[in-house]
Design brief:
about 190 residues, alpha/beta, Dihydrofolate Reductase, subunit A, eight-stranded mixed β-sheet, two-stranded antiparallel ribbon, about 30% helix
Length: about 190
Amino acid sequence: MGKIISFMHVSLDGFVSGPNGEMDWIKVDEEIFDHVGKRIGQGDTALYGRVTYQMMEAYWPGAADQPLASRHDIDHSKWYKEVYKAVLSKTMKGADTDKLKIIGDNLTADIQEIKQRTHNDIMLFGSPTATHSLMELDLIDGYWLFVNPILLGRGIPLFEGIEKKTNLKLLDTRTFHCGVTELSYVVDGK
């Protein structure tokens, strides 16, 4: 059964974006792209909130076709086109396809169904609102955090409204040349 891993860039003080959704503080480079590409390339399922999905859908399907497309753009575009996508949204309309499922009201049942369809990690990309919803229902199995060397002071927090203690087990750390530190955790007991 697949496990849901929340993949998120986060500031040192725990924010995933600025107060108006700003993400211009996130540091990425080829070293991070290569590292992330290897890990997500092993997966066959991506989970998004509506806003993040719409951003991804606007860029990734055609990214490889751009004249100045980087190797990362080409590789990620190919992966994005092939991967099964699930979108958490109560407002997005459209029919499910063999590559897309829209999850609205039956969150727990639909997530369990998605977990059953794969033995790989299910990457929950960005999507703080979706992450908060899944946290509330204890459906996240791990966190893959990229801690950026910045204090934002305010913004959208990653761990908002935590009602119960959740023990995490550190699986791996890595520091990148740009100053970002990767922390990979699994929820203890899952």
